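Batch manifest line 473
LIGAND: D-gluconic acid
JOB: complex structure
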Amino acid sequence: MSSGNADYRDSGLVFPEDFVFGAATASYQIEGAWNEDGRGVSIWDTFSHTPGRISDGANGDVTDDHYHRLEEDLDLMKRLGLQAYRFSISWPRIVPTGSGEVNQAGIDFYSRLVDGLITRGITPIATLYHWDLPQPLEDKGGWVNRETAYRFEEYTRVIGAALGDRVQIWTTLNEPWCSAYLGYGSGAHAPGRTDGADALAAVHHLNLAHGLGLSALRAVVSNDPQYSVTLNLHALRGVGETGAEAVRQIDALGNRAFTGPMLHGAYPQDLLDDTASITDWGFVQEGDLEIIHQPIDVLGINYYSTNAVRIWDGVSERVSADGHKPSAGSAWPGADRVEFVQQDGPYTEMGWNIAPDGFEQLLRDVHAEFPDLPLMITENGAAFADVVTDGAVHDPERTDYLRRHLTAVHRAMEGGVDLRGYMVWSLMDNFEWAYGFSKRFGVVRVDYDTLVRTVKDSGLWYSELVRTHVIPE
Ligand code: GCO
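JOB STATUS: finished
ARTIFACT:
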């Protein structure tokens, strides 16, 4: 596959001058101010306020209080030297009930954010949907209801018109896999529903929303931005004789259910066959695939670890090490016999295996399938149990994780993969969904009592990388 150390611990590798280094966050995870300035309720407010849903009982009511600390956080980004900032827009701040009335205060907040970035020389990368669906839309069926895709189109038109003179990269959806399968299949994420057929309908309506959103943006923006979507493509490893078949099934549900319609213009036949006993896919209407299949300028990829799979033998105790919080339903409708096998460490605090080789392979595979499509890493990073010592956070494990994954990115580029940038997840510690505040992904620490931000050692290291474009010692 590649030359160089098997452990991917390189330093001194040089990235091209026009390669963009930045950091990523998401609205619900950092903003707080959940009921201020006209913001409506989202499914994550409802979910996190429901006892038992979040492992440490936390919610995003305040989290990093970014909404009130915008200027301070912009200055922090500037101090780190970030070239780009990938943020998401909270739909219920813009259209509080999901349809109809628009909330100007919400638009103003993101307008200030975008201006603040531009003033500081930081490129704004906006994601339209990072999981915070307005609750009134969920009450009407959420992503299982086709109407939600049209409401997304309306919201996109509003925010696209407001920021469409300044945003440089628009991303329609973040990880629709999570929205559909964790939200409606396993129930580990909001809205916490557990029905395989619903999850598959959600897949299609999210794909449809992506297409409708792209058309809406193209109609209203006035600058010349790039259009994108971010997928958490699963890097899969087959185990044993049945590994290849298990990989095929998970690849269909986890990857090709999105890349198929978005980038090839069709759902893969094996996906339809595998799920035939669950749904007839009657929710795919004539003309939908043409809407979904539109050119994009760059594909965003989020990567954390690999998955190892095989077909369960029906005898031994069933394992399900798929890296997500255990929950009532299945995140893999139609792949009931696939077993997720525990992989070799080392692991991050999430229990996810650290596998930079899997990252390099994934990037090479995606490039081989879509050779003309530029790629951007829109998330990569790691949670570790940080300790504050004399006001500093020494987090060599996180720096090591970043070094190894940046080495993988560099090797993929050497191998011909067209990669345009890398956004570390995350700028700062934040509300980690079903795990609450128990997992810290930031290169900046947030003290949740005082809300004080402290740049971790990994953040200082990353800052040097951004400045020099060379992987530091
Ligand atoms: C994701 C996410 C982030 C998570 C991160 C770590 O898209 O899954 O965008 O919100 O916090 O992936 O789990």
